[in-house]
Amino acid sequence: MIELQLTGIFPRSNELIKATRSYDKGLISWNELLEYIKKDAQYVINLQIDMGFDCIIDGMYLWQDIFRPFTEGVKGIKPGALTRWFDNNTFFRKPLIGEIDVDTHIPFIHRYILLDLMMSPCKKVILPGPYTFLSLSSRGYDENTIISLAKIMAREVENLENKGVKVFQFNEPSLVYRESPDKVFRVFENLREAYEIIRKKAEGKIILHTYFGNAAPVMNELLDLPVDYIGVDFYSTEFMDLKEISMNKGLLCGCLDSRNSYMEDPMKVVELVKKIEEHMNPKEIILTPNCDLEFLPRKIAVKKMKILVDVKKLLEGDNNV
After folding, report:
1. 85-95, pLDDT tens digit by residue?
2. How many domains does the chain have?
3. C or N terminus of the chain, fewer CB within 10 Å?
């Protein structure tokens, strides 16, 4: 089965960009800004529904970065200095992690998601993976804190599922971005325990998505984690490096480049997907951009979405694209 989904923050409209600047200058109220946010969210929600995407996101317009809701709402975590997001021209507030208060944690992430606008039978939420969260924090990786983070995530997942969310994507670029495989191998037992904690609270699908780096060296370890799909950025990972790996899970196939305005040829993407089906034999395939589309102008992002639609049609035998 082939599905279509988005993988992260969607580009803002010029109107929302201007409104955000006005809000930062104190020229408009939060409620006024929220109306612009809802308008953008409704646009991307309608876009996904009209194009036939199988599970929808709200565009993540209430997320200033992937960590910000947690640095603002979890006891023991605070936002730090602006830090470059990997090798991109975007930034995040580095999480400053002290002692995380798991016992008194009350789920709140639903306040950052416009669930009421997501009129679809399949709602998807994207969250930071616990390893990446720690790796990019002031504390760095340690085996006790990753379990605390997993417990926080598990409570949030349980609450979101009760509110109708069916798919949870955890972003883990730090597992593959310029990391020594030997270093990453050492964390997988601990990481498996973390995702087992999350898995116990989720009846829906869990996706672990890697990007910005080569997933091939750690693919076997990824496949051993208690998740339903592994996400691969096929602009950072060569298919030939994965050719001999047999998938025992679904594959989130990052087959369009979200950091390049070049328009992919749908037929070449079809060729890649067919090779993946033939050699890797994943249980299911979700066609996606390789990461957030926020790095592109909105018009280009929409065109990339249309390419995904065309690829799915071609794979299903519909040549009217």
Report:
1. 999 989 999 99
2. 1
3. N
